[in-house]
Amino acid sequence: MSGGSAGNGSGEGGGPPRSTAEEPWPVRVVSQKVGAWIARLGWVWVDGQVAQISRRPGASTVFLTLRDPSADLSLTVTTNRDVLDAGAPELREGARVVLHAKPEFYAARGTLSLRADEIRQVGLGELLARLEKLKKLLAAEGLFDRARKRRLPFLPGRIGLITGRASAAERDVLTNARRRWPAVDFRTVNVAVQGPGAVPQIVDALKVLDTDPSVDVIVIARGGGSIEDLLPFSDEALCRAVFGCRTPVVSAIGHETDAPLLDYVADVRASTPTDAAKRVVPDLAEEVRLIRQARHRLERAVRNLVDRESHRIDLLRSRPVLARPQVMVDLRAADLAALRARTGRCLDHRLGTAENDLRHTLARLRALSPAATLDRGYAIVQRADGHVVRAAAEVAPGDPLRVRLAAGELAATVDG
């Protein structure tokens, strides 16, 4: 082991204070130092899921493989059989435990393990309390917000399916989806749906399908089971992975009564895998029936429109103006003849009235005319300048006068 950074400060276990290329540390020294650094952590409480239990007959030591529920990480745990029987006598693989342990580094094999002096199996009540706490946390962060949930495409080009291999859930989704829409295309990724490796596999499958541009919707399906069996679908890492997906996600976990946290984060929650198949693809027979109904309604609407407009045309054609167009001309001709007759009568009446008025005026004029007076034997006497003489004083003896008679004129001179 080379490099000055490998060991600064004084050595432990009697080793040299520093390691150099000229004075390297032996393997035993490195193992001692690694063990010393690990021992500094002391006793800790660890939460995990039991992936494997090894009880050797006649041996007092029990070996456990403790796995992180949300990551592909595991540690070996050693404990005494009495410790296990006292804290978790019915412990099975897949159970959640909390144990009090101290990390130890075994120099001979170069491995790290935990030595537990107390093991507590997490009961159902504590699991539910943890889930409720996690549910409130995720809800407060907005992972359950309905406003961010996306609508599923009407007819997806390809459906991504995450489920157990050869499981009833896979069969239900594929069978029912193809029964509804025979041409549906699936990309199926088989994963573990329970146990310590379920969450990492589901998250990895989710990333693969979300990055596939041909996948329009992702279905995560699993059949029913106990609360412990469905725990992976309430894992925080899985919930956050689903929340970060760009592709709409459908959760189809368990039965109607099962409600893992994945149901709240997913864009659509299906009560069963069969229900998920009904939600992601339309029913071909139903769509054909709806198309037929729509066509029937459209044909009926067009037919009604044509009938209504034809009736309107018939009504218009039945009107006299269109049925007998000459009637309007005849009516207008009759009106014109009547107007001409009225005009003639009015004109004749006005001319007759004007003629009578003229005749009366002429009679009055003749009655008042000086010529009519002359006809009665009167005469008009005028001086030479044309002035009518009305009194004898207006003339003098010797003045010439002009006397107008009804017929002719006389010249006269005033004698006196």
From TrEMBL:
Pfam families: Exonuc_VII_L (PF02601), tRNA_anti_2 (PF13742). GO terms for molecular function: exodeoxyribonuclease VII activity; nucleic acid binding. Its EC number is 3.1.11.6. InterPro entries: Exonuc_VII_L, Exonuc_VII_lsu_C, OB-fold_nuc-bd_dom. It is found in: Cytoplasm. Residues 1-16 have a biased composition (Gly residues). One of its GO terms (cellular component) is exodeoxyribonuclease VII complex. Residues 143-349 form the Exonuclease VII large subunit C-terminal domain. It is an enzyme of class 3 (hydrolase). Keywords: Cytoplasm, Exonuclease, Hydrolase, Nuclease. Residues 26-120 form the OB-fold nucleic acid binding domain. Residues 1-25 are annotated as: Disordered. It catalyses: Exonucleolytic cleavage in either 5'- to 3'- or 3'- to 5'-direction to yield nucleoside 5'-phosphates. NCBIfam families: xseA. Heterooligomer composed of large and small subunits. Bidirectionally degrades single-stranded DNA into large acid-insoluble oligonucleotides, which are then degraded further into small acid-soluble oligonucleotides. Belongs to the XseA family. This is Exodeoxyribonuclease 7 large subunit. It comes from Micromonospora inyonensis.
